[in-house]
C-alpha cells in the first residue's frame, strides 16, 4: 500500500478523480496533485482530500515538489490528457519533455518505488495492413511518429529507459483505448458531437472505446496493487465508425482520407484534432484480465451510448431508423455466418 502518491494532470477529468479516490483510501496518507493550471471548481471538489500544487513538470522545480511531498508512488496521468486546448507544439513539449524531467526527478529520488504511466493504444498506429487485434507484444508495422500518438511512443520509450536505470522501481504502463463519456472533453468526443462527421471513403474503421469509470478503476488498482508490466485496457466489443456516427445521430460524409482530416480539423476548432484515417484499432485485454483480475463493466457500445445520452446530443437522424437499420445488418450478418 503506497503512503504518499503524486498524480500529474489533475486539471483533467481522469487525474482529478483519481487523486480524489486515492485520497479516500484508508491506507494512503497523502495525495499531491500537480498541474500547470488549477482544476476547475467541479474537479477541485472531486479531488476531495488531495492537495493541489501548481507546478510545471517541464521545470526543474518538479524535483523539489517530488522531494517535499515524500511520494513513494508517482502516477503520470498527464501524459495523455483528454483536454485538447493545447496547441500541437505545446502538447509535444508538455508530454515528452515534461515526462523526461519527471522521470529524472523520480530517478534521483530514493523514496519512489512505483511509477504508473497512463498511455494509449494509439502507440500501435492504425494501418489497413495491421493485425485485427494488437497484443502488448505486437510490434506495429508503421508506428506513429507525430501528433499525440507519436508523443505517446516517445513517452513510453523514456519510461522503458527509466525502468532499466531503476530496476528497483515497479513500472506499470496502461495503454488505454479512447475514453468516451458524458464528462470527457476530447478531440474524439468533439468529433462525434459535430453535426456533420467526415469519414474515410471506402474504410469503416473498428473502434474500441473505454468508459472513464473503468479507466479510473484500473488506475486505482495499479496504484494500490503491484502489477508491473504493460497492459492494454479497453472495453469488450467494437463499433465501426459508421455505427458510431449513426448511434450519435450525426450525418456521416465519406470523403478521401486527407480531406477527412482537414474537415475534422475545421469542425473541431483549435488544439489537437482527430484524424479519421488514424482511427481504428482493437487491443487484446487478456493480460489485464489475467493479472488484474479485472473486466471493464461497460462495453464499447454502452460507453458510447452513455456519452451520447449524457451529452444530450440531439440526433439529426431518427433513433428508430438507426435501430431498425442495425437489426437488419445483424440479421444479414447472421445469414452470412
Write the layout of secondary structure elements.
Layout: E1 4-8, H1 13-23, E2 30-35, H2 41-46, E3 51-54, H3 61-69, E4 73-76, H4 88-107, E5 114-120, H5 147-165, E6 170-176, E7 178-179, H6 187-193, E8 196-200, E9 206-207, E10 209-210, H7 212-224, E11 229-233, E12 239-240, H8 241-247, E13 251-255, H9 257-268, H10 286-292, H11 300-310, H12 319-336
Parallel strand pairs: 1-2, 1-4, 2-3, 4-5, 5-6, 6-11, 7-10, 8-13
Antiparallel strand pairs: 9-12
Helix pairs in contact: 1-7, 3-4, 4-5
Q: Could you say what the CATH topology of the domain at 4-184 and 210-237 and 281-296 is called?
A: Rossmann fold
Provide a count of the helices.
Answer: 12
Q: For the largest beta sheet, what order do the strands appear in spatially? A: 3-2-1-4-5-6-11
Strand content of the residues, in percent? 15-25%
For the record, what is the CATH homologous superfamily label of the domain at 4-184 and 210-237 and 281-296? NAD(P)-binding Rossmann-like Domain
| Radius of gyration (Å) | 20 Å
Helix content: 40-55%
Pfam family, one: Epimerase
Region (Disordered): 127-153
Protein name: NAD-dependent dehydratase
Domain NAD-dependent epimerase/dehydratase: 5-234
Amino acid at each position: 500500500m503506497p503512503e504518499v502518491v503524486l498524480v500529474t494532470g489533475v486539471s483533467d477529468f481522469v487525474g482529478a478523480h483519481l487523486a480524489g479516490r486515492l485520497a479516500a483510501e484508508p491506507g494512503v496518507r497523502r495525495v499531491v496533485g500537480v498541474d500547470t493550471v488549477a482544476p476547475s471548481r467541479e474537479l477541485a471538489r472531486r479531488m476531495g482530500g488531495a492537495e493541489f500544487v501548481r507546478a510545471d513538470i517541464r521545470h526543474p522545480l518538479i524535483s523539489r515538489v517530488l522531494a517535499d511531498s515524500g511520494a513513494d508512488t508517482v502516477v503520470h496521468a498527464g501524459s495523455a490528457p483528454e483536454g485538447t486546448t493545447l496547441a500541437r507544439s505545446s502538447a509535444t513539449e508538455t508530454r515528452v519533455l515534461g515526462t523526461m524531467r519527471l522521470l529524472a526527478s523520480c530517478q534521483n529520488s530514493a523514496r519512489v518505488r512505483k511509477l504508473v504511466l497512463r498511455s494509449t493504444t494509439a502507440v500501435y498506429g492504425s494501418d489497413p495492413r495491421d493485425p485485427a487485434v494488437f497484443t502488448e507484444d505486437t510490434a506495429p508495422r508503421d508506428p506513429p511518429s507525430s501528433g499525440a500518438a507519436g508523443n505517446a511512443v516517445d513517452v513510453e520509450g523514456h519510461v522503458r529507459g527509466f525502468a532499466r536505470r531503476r530496476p528497483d522501481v515497479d513500472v506499470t504502463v496502461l495503454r488505454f483505448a479512447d475514453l468516451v463519456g458524458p464528462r470527457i472533453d476530447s478531440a474524439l468526443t468533439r468529433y462525434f458531437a459535430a453535426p456533420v462527421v467526415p469519414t474515410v471513403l471506402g474504410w469503416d474503421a473498428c473502434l474500441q472505446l473505454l468508459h472513464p469509470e473503468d479507466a479510473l478503476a484500473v488506475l486505482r488498482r495499479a496504484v494500490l496493487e503491484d502489477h508491473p508490466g504493460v497492459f492494454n485496457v479497453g472495453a469488450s466489443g467494437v463499433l465501426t465508425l459508421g455505427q458510431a456516427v449513426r448511434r450519435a445521430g450525426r450525418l456521416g460524409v465519406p470523403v478521401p482520407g486527407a480531406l477527412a482530416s482537414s474537415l475534422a480539423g475545421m469542425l473541431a476548432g483549435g488544439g489537437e484534432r482527430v484524424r479519421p484515417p488514424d482511427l481504428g484499432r482493437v487491443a487484446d485485454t487478456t493480460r489485464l484480465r489475467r493479472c488484474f483480475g479485472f473486466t471493464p463493466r461497460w462495453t464499447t457500445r454502452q460507453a458510447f451510448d452513455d456519452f451520447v445520452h449524457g451529452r444530450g446530443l440531439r440526433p439529426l437522424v431518427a433513433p428508430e431508423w438507426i435501430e431498425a437499420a442495425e437489426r437488419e445488418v445483424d440479421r444479414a450478418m447472421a445469414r452470412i455466418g
